[in-house]
Amino acid sequence: MYLLIMPNGAKRFQMKYRYESKERTYSIGVYGPRGVSLKDARDLRDQAKRSLADGHDPTSERRLKRAEVVNSESKTVIDVSYKWLELQKKRWSTDHYRDVTSLLSAEIFPRIGKLPIRKVTSAMVATLVLDPIEKRGALVVARRARQRLSAIYRYAAARGDVDVGFDPAGPHLLEGLTAPRPVRRNPAIVELSELRALLDRVDTSPAAATTKLATRFVALTFVRTETLTGARWEQFEDLDGSLPLWDIPKEIMKGKKDHKLPFMIPLSRQAVDIIEAARKISGECPWVFPSDIHPESSPISNNAILFNLYRLGYRGRHTTHGFRASFSTIMNNKYAELAKVIDFAIAHVPPNTSEAAYNRAEYLEIRRKLHQEYADMLFEGFPPASSLLDGPRR
Q1: CA torsion through residues 290, 296, 301, 302, sign
Q2: CATH class of the domain whose range is 192-390
Q3: What is the secondary structure of 329-353 as a DSSP string?
Q4: What separation in angstroms does the CA of 178 have from each of 127, 170, 182?
Q5: With contact defined as beta carbons under 8 Å apart, do 142 and 130 qualify?
Q6: DSSP symbols for 61-122
Q7: Domain segments of the chain: what residues?
Q8: Of 28, 142, 311, 341, which is least packed with CB atoms within 10 Å of its CB?
Q9: Angle at Cα 90 formed by Cα 86 and Cα 93, nearest 5°?
Q10: How far is CA 163 from CA 61, 149, 160, 166, in A?
């Protein structure tokens, strides 16, 4: 390394080196208060020597890095966001993709979308994006906007568009956000005697037979409402045999687009009894539990069971979704060692898809025993499901 003095008096650190048998000059920088110090020049020289030792031309490497910086600085938040969305589209459901795209288009792009992605600061995100959302009271939207923007910056870092760790929308901004009111969990009755009393009340109170049968069925299978309404005759197997099964297609299961799996539910004797009773009133329809108004074209309403519970005085005490918590709590209290199996039984699929596929078959036999024991506990002494066909109707 040496100091080259220019005709105008400027001093520049340079280094002679050989690369591919040719002598070359590496310009380190101008010496001076606003330039490179002697210590910095030595550090930069050592970096250049390490590049040479690795078989790289330090001059070409520096030009490439400068070109990368210029290229990344020309990319805007919108540019990178659309690349990120394109990647996520393969992983998300259509509805979720639409919702996220709508959030970005409404809350982020109009405010900082045209800025270079490297130039955005946390202050900009807070004052230009989050504060206006909070001022109109949309606290959950503000948090989601921060979360999505942070994910975009992590993607940008992985692609080299920003430095690793640079995230102006990172979790540190949560300190300045107002926490939304906690979401109230679905109320659920978790005492066996109270749950049996609820089911008896449903059986003996005026309501459509399909609603009563569907309530019994969801109490025994603890599926989500969308899964229940999607139940079709062809999904059921071996109803006359010893291993009756509901083989639920992945399309009506909850989950991300690329993480949905079909799900098997072993059926108790009482669950089979309900299906056979339902066949007497809806066997000509595609749905096991059809709509009373348009049975040929629509399944039972998502709210049929829930609104019936409300009419019976259970608003704030129990919901359709609450049957999941009922099963989980009652059986976990009895079999704490089977917590993982019980959790899987209510379709809480593990994040590892391979593990979920394995457990789908592995847990089937023990779940069959749990389902039957739970059904016996719930409906001991109850009349058969066919008795509901002639019961009081609304």
Answers
A1: positive
A2: mainly alpha
A3: HHHHHH-GGGHHHHHHHTT---SSH
A4: 14, 16, 12
A5: yes
A6: HHHHHHHHHHHHHT-BHHHHHHHHHHHHTTTS-HHHHHHHHHHIIIIIHHHHTTSBTTT--H
A7: 2-73, 77-176, 192-390
A8: 311
A9: 110
A10: 17, 16, 7, 6
Tell me the pLDDT tens digit for each residue of 211-241: 999 999 999 999 999 899 999 999 999 999 9
The amino acid sitting at 280 is K
- What's the CA gap between 32 and 9, in Å, rounded? 11
| Correct CATH for 2-73 of 1.10.10.60, 3.30.450.20, 3.30.160.390, 3.40.50.300 | 3.30.160.390
| Start-to-end CA span in the chain (Å) | 95
3-state secondary structure of 3: strand
Q: How much is the average pLDDT of 14-21? A: 84
Q: Which residues contact 73 (CB under 8 A, 6 or more apart)?
A: 116, 118, 119
Q: Using alpha carbons, select from 197, 336, 217 the residue that is nearest to residue 275.
A: 217
Give the span between the Cα atoms of 14 and 26, in whole angstroms: 6
Higher pLDDT, 288 or 356: 288
Residue with tokens 């829930």: 306
Tokens of residue 80, six digits: 């990178």
* Dihedral sign for Cα atoms in the order 149, 154, 160, 166: positive
198 with 263: CB under 8 angstroms?
Answer: no
Q: Beta-carbon neighbour count of residue 376 at 10 Å?
A: 12
